[in-house]
Design a protein that fits this description.
six-stranded parallel beta sheet; seven-stranded mixed beta sheet; 18 strands; alpha/beta
Length: 623
């Protein structure tokens, strides 16, 4: 019997556009003549929760509690319930007619978020401003309901993750197993209803979950638990980014109470082999990059040599069957870069597999998704883009590369211009000198609207220690080239890198201030450094002046590491101040204030001159 696969995006991933893993898998399985269907349980469950029927049940359940959080929402429950369907419909398909109503804050019941609306927001004039204002109020209204549900109905609930707290750094399976023995929540019962409907519709013999993040794991295991109970003949496979980074040392067999197979790295060939094994065409010893349980032991089967499918030979992703009409456009933060992640709808595609640089000391350079760099041609990319547009009806593309190669971006831009294709797109880059004024101009002409890139520590000493291959001056020049051509620049910022001092943290903030002030970057986000086991730092911590202190590996996940940094600052002290400063710079204010203004403890004065970036920009040769 030939296998029928159901490819599943579990709750919760993205709500504005499909996570692309299942589409990639389906495109390949189609080429192998293996029947498959795909379902996005993330958006399916979300749109089942925010309905009149579900909210009525949720409020009824909350009222059984002795203590209720957000009582002001409970008091207005009928108003919230009556409004939800039209708000969700608007966020799915914004129209100016409905926006005229929803752009008036008086149209909504006012809870804790809508009562604190930022009245200083400057909305664009005309219909776009009206729609954006309506989106913003609608988003805050949905977030109020989300807060109520999380506090009173299901503590695991969040818009883009579920039960993340018990899956993050879960070196032991104990916490997950305990939670899986609890009575399912109202939301989990809704999940089961959708899953049952999809199983009855597609009649799969193998259900395959892609688990990109810790916040997808528990819902996957809950789903597996349901399938094992009510559809015991169906086999279950799990793969994706979480497995690839966290489960490579798996030795605890208990997860196989809920899952039959766990695959590592690119999932196409492992799924083909599992299908062939279940069909009786190969033996279990011929599986590739796959964990399974045998006699209560975890076995990792990886037939060598592996079957290699080069990136250039992969067919186009197939988005057939995903519910594009259900995705919602959120507008919670009025930041043009942030809204590209949460508001706009994009087709997701990779230009290249892996990273062409693959040297950064904090990155998982030892793993396949970084270290195995493969390229394709601009002709192939554009052909795939045209095919995807015909499937989805969406013209925009987000290229989700670790770092898009400049050579390929040049070739892609030329091909798009040659074919006169008007396609907006954005991608992640390294701030390398190849991005000169000419290349940035070409990319803008070809439809590039934004780039994201890792500035990280904004310290030349630490950038060298990171092996980033860039320096502050180069970042400034490249960012300015992009900005001069109307391409928005978002910088990923890091603090707490090994041996980073208080002085270097403040100096980094000063560089960030100047980069914003001189329009080299228009958006940014801080995150605190975490050592990971697959990075050069995690594997050789002594070379970076730190000591790994845990967690103790107990047979399940292994990725994030705890460390002590005797030479560095107390980095957690800086979190609030760095974010406060960044919030102001994002909004174009606060540049004239001393850096001390953002902190409630004494910090060093910056050692950088106030005109450091200005002088770098004045001295650049190419303009």
């Amino acid at each position: 019997m030939s296998q029928k696969l159901l490819l599943v995006i579990p709750p919760f991933s993205q709500l504005n556009t499909p996570y692309p893993a299942t589409a990639y898998l389906k495109g390949f399985l189609d080429s192998q003549e293996i029947e498959s269907h795909q379902v996005d349980l993330s958006i399916e469950l979300f749109t089942s929760i925010f309905t009149k029927d579900f909210l009525t049940e949720a409020f009824d359940e909350a009222q059984k509690l002795k203590e209720i959080s957000f009582t002001e929402i409970l008091k207005k429950k009928e108003e919230y319930i009556q409004l939800v369907d039209e708000v969700i419909q608007f966020l799915q398909t914004p129209t100016i007619e409905k926006a005229q109503e929803l752009s008036k804050i008086s149209y909504f019941p006012k809870g804790h978020r809508l009562s604190a609306v930022n009245k200083s927001i400057q909305w664009e004039s005309g219909e776009k401003g009206v729609i954006d204002r309506a989106k913003h109020f609608s988003t805050l209204y949905i977030e109020e309901l989300g807060d109520f549900i999380r506090s009173n109905v299901d503590e695991f609930f969040s818009f883009t993750r579920y039960a993340e707290q018990i899956a993050t750094s879960a070196s032991s399976f104990d916490g997950l197993e305990d939670s899986l023995h609890y009575e399912p929540t109202l939301i989990e019962h809704a999940l089961f209803d959708i899953l049952e409907q999809k199983i009855e519709e597609f009649q799969p013999t193998l259900v395959c979950f892609t688990v990109p993040f810790p916040g997808n794991l528990f819902a996957t295991l809950r789903s597996g638990q349901f399938i094992k109970q009510f559809y015991p003949s169906i086999k279950i496979a799990m793969g994706g980014g979480y497995c690839n980074t966290e489960l490579r040392s798996l030795s605890d067999p208990r997860i196989f109470e809920f899952i039959d197979f766990i695959t590592l790295d690119d999932g196409e060939i492992p799924l083909v082999r599992i299908s062939q094994f279940l069909d009786g065409k190969i033996t279990i010893n011929e599986l590739e990059r796959t964990f399974y349980r045998q006699d209560d032991y975890v076995v990792y089967q990886n037939k060598v040599p592996n079957t290699i499918v080069h990136h250039s030979n992969l067919p186009a992703p197939n988005y057939e069957g995903l519910p594009f009409s259900k995705y919602v456009s959120f507008l919670d933060v009025i930041n043009p870069m942030h809204r590209m992640w949460t508001d706009e709808r994009w087709n997701k595609l990779t230009i290249s597999h892996g990273c062409y640089w693959k040297q950064c000391s904090f990155c998982d350079v030892t793993l396949d998704y970084i270290g195995n760099y493969q390229n394709t041609t601009a002709e192939d990319l554009v052909n795939k883009m045209e095919k995807i547009i015909s499937q989805t009806g969406i013209k925009g593309f987000h290229f989700v590369d670790e770092a898009a190669p400049p050579k390929m971006l040049r070739a892609l831009s030329k091909k798009l211009i040659e074919k006169e294709l008007e396609i907006p797109w954005w991608t992640n880059i390294r701030f390398e000198k190849t991005f000169d004024a000419d290349l940035c101009r070409l990319m803008a002409q070809a439809g590039c609207v934004a780039v994201t890139g890792g500035l990280e520590v904004a310290s030349d000493r630490l950038l060298e220690k990171m092996k980033k291959g860039v320096d502050i001056g180069q970042v400034a020049r490249v960012g300015k080239h992009f900005a001069n051509n109307g391409i928005m620049v978002h910088a990923y910022l890091m603090y707490g890198f090994p041996t980073q001092t208080d002085q270097e943290t403040i100096d980094s903030l000063e560089i960030v201030r100047q980069l914003f002030q001189h329009n080299c970057i228009q958006s940014a986000y801080w995150h605190q450094f975490t050592a990971t086991i697959h990075s050069p730092i995690g594997q050789h911590p002594e070379e970076f002046g730190i000591t790994i202190t845990g967690p103790k590996f107990e047979g399940f996940a292994q990725n994030d590491l705890w460390h002590e940094d005797p030479m560095g600052a107390d980095h957690s002290m800086y979190t609030k101040g760095l974010n406060l400063a960044l919030h102001n710079y994002l909004n174009g204010v606060g540049f004239e204030l001393p850096l001390q203004e953002w902190f409630d403890f004494e910090v060093p004065k910056t050692s950088h001159p106030k005109f450091k970036i200005a002088k770098v920009l004045e001295s650049q040769i190419d303009t």
